[in-house]
Amino acid sequence: MLDNYLLEELVVFSKVGTLALVAEQLHVTQPTVTRGMKRLESELGTHLFDRQPNRITLTETGKLAVKEAEMLISANKEAIEKIQNFDRSQRIMRFGSTLPGPIIVLNYLKKNLPGNIKIKENQLKPESITTRLNSGEYALILSNQNLSSTTIDSQYIGTEQLAINLNESMEQANQSTIKFADLKDLSFLVPANVGLWRNIIQQSIPNAKFLYQEQRGALSEITKYADFPYFSSNVSPLDVEGDSPTRNGSISQIPIVDDNAKMNIYANYLSVEKDRVKNVIDQLLSVWPDDFDNQCE
After folding, report:
1. Residue 254 CB: number of other CB atoms within 10 A?
2. pTM given for the model
3. Please, which residues bridge with residue 49 across strands?
4. pLDDT one-digit tens code per residue, 70-122
5. Cα dist. 105→85, 101, 109, 171, 240 in Å?
6. What residues of the chain score a pLDDT lower than 70?
């Protein structure tokens, strides 16, 4: 078996070009690197380097060895991470989401969840779900994606639907429902971390201006004393942090009925983890609010 540190020395040499720089970058002596490269050649039974009096370069075989070494190092790193994540998952189950709404619902349930469950407050990147689940880093990730596959199961949890909150003095506030197009030319207060909703509202509301706020507390405070419209959803009432936007005076919360104002939410998890996450999924299903259409029925 080839030692990992020998492979690392070979890969570094391919990038820096001299044994002296390899030694400097890896914080070892140059004789140590020289002995290591000779040992690697001996173990492989081939010449990896073309040695000249004042110069050493890779042979064609050496260049191939570098490519193979990079793959072995990467595979070794992935294996270590997977083992460590699996060990950690036996003690701690990490839950995450690619959207802010499901995080609100998970935090609402937190007091009823086992103590070994940790909720990732920052949103995950949608394209990272499969990798994070397969590596064992996360036990469950909520998303608008149904990722059912040979290794991953997906369970529909519910729908998140946007609404707009308007001062009752505004013309649009008299409507029972509203469309994005009806909100054209307005300016909105919006949390900075709205995830996938950000592109949807920007692309759907003509000539709108969005005043993004990094701090939720600041957003809530501004909303109290300004007439800017702000968004909420059917899951907003479950927000336990207590600094959701509110306004002094009368406002109208109006559901947005465009198709892209709704997102189906799925719980994604490894098939082998089904029994471990079942209780949490059942709780999510039990508390997830109906969308506004069903609330009115």
Report:
1. 21
2. 0.68
3. 58
4. 999 888 888 888 787 777 666 678 899 999 999 999 999 988 888 788 899 88
5. 25, 7, 6, 33, 9
6. 1, 88-91, 225, 241-249, 293-297
Q: How far apart are the first and last CA of the chain?
A: 67
Contact between 195 and 265 (Cβ < 8 Å)? no
Q: Which amino acid is at 160?
A: E
Q: How far apart are CA 245 and CA 236, in angstroms?
A: 10
The tokens describing 193, both together, are 């971390």
Residue in the block written with tokens 């690619």: 98
Nearest-CA neighbor of 210 among 197, 220, 221? Answer: 197
What's the gap between Cα 139 and its chain centre? Answer: 13
53: number of Cβ within 10 Å: 5
Distance CA 112, CA 108 (A): 9
CB atoms within 10 A of CB 216: 17
Measured between alpha carbons, how far is residue 113 from residues 81, 109, 272 in Å?
26, 6, 20
Rounded Cα gap, residues 297 and 295, in angstroms = 6
What is the token pair recorded at 97? 């989401």
